[in-house]
Specification:
globular; alpha+beta; 235 residues; 9 strands
Length: 235
């Protein structure tokens, strides 16, 4: 069960040196991936958000730029971080995960059974002055065929929300992940974009998309850190 994976603190291995590369010379145009040159099938046969790769912008090989369409998500209410983490040690996160999982199992106004999607999206709102996490959200993408008239949840702590089209910088995490590791990558990515004078991103929002399930070996664990542009400036 994916829940068991989320509540564990996972070691941040040294397989991927994206942070060192992002913090290196500002003229760097390559981030080396030491292992896992071929990414796993990240959706594992489940429906996941569609996107379009932006290829006319020069970026290091470890950073992608994508355009995401507007879509609906089933989201938790805000919850507080524990030890500055939206993942490890949070009972609220565990409870909200169960409510979101139950939504796909028919605990909604239509009693509709839906195949659960990937990824689990964890969003932390970061204080720009202190670097601390102010609050968190947990959410799942709603399948496309139900997105327009998605049933409302019966649980009071979750709701159907809408994300507008957005353009995001994406860094892959192959292998073990943790919230601490995601924050380090997020910080390094912000500094990298700052050196490139890309200042129209939502720097206070850390998005971690988790694609791996329980029991997946380390070599196939996969997640992504997203830093997205301000919607009102991109459109």
């Amino acid at each position: 069960m994916l829940l068991a994976l989320l509540v564990c603190t996972l070691a941040a291995g040294g397989r991927y040196n994206v942070i060192q590369a992002l913090n290196a010379d500002p003229n760097i145009d390559l981030i080396e991936i030491e292992e896992f040159q071929v990414l796993p099938n990240i959706c594992h046969g489940k429906e996941c958000p569609k996107y379009t790769d932006v290829t006319d912008v020069k970026l290091p090989s470890g950073v992608k730029l994508r355009d995401y369409p507007d879509m609906n998500w089933i989201s938790s209410s805000r919850y507080e971080a524990v030890d500055n983490s939206c993942l490890e040690g949070s009972e609220d996160m565990v409870n909200y995960y169960q409510q979101l999982y139950n939504y796909f199992k028919g605990v909604n106004t239509m009693g509709l059974l839906m195949e659960r999607t990937v990824p689990i999206r964890v969003i932390g709102q970061i204080d720009p002055d202190t670097g601390n996490v102010n609050y968190c959200h947990l959410m799942f993408f709603i399948p496309g065929m139900y997105s327009v008239n998605a049933p409302a949840p019966l649980s009071v702590g979750i709701f159907v929300g809408h994300n507008f089209e957005k353009r995001c910088y994406v860094v892959s995490i192959n292998g073990n992940y943790s919230w601490k590791r995601a924050m380090k990558i997020h910080k390094a990515l912000k500094k990298f974009l700052g050196r490139k004078k890309v200042d129209d991103v939502v720097q206070s929002e850390l998005i971690l998309d988790i694609y791996s399930g329980y029991g997946v070996p380390n070599s196939k664990k996969y997640s992504e850190v997203l830093l997205c542009m301000k919607v009102d400036e991109f459109y």
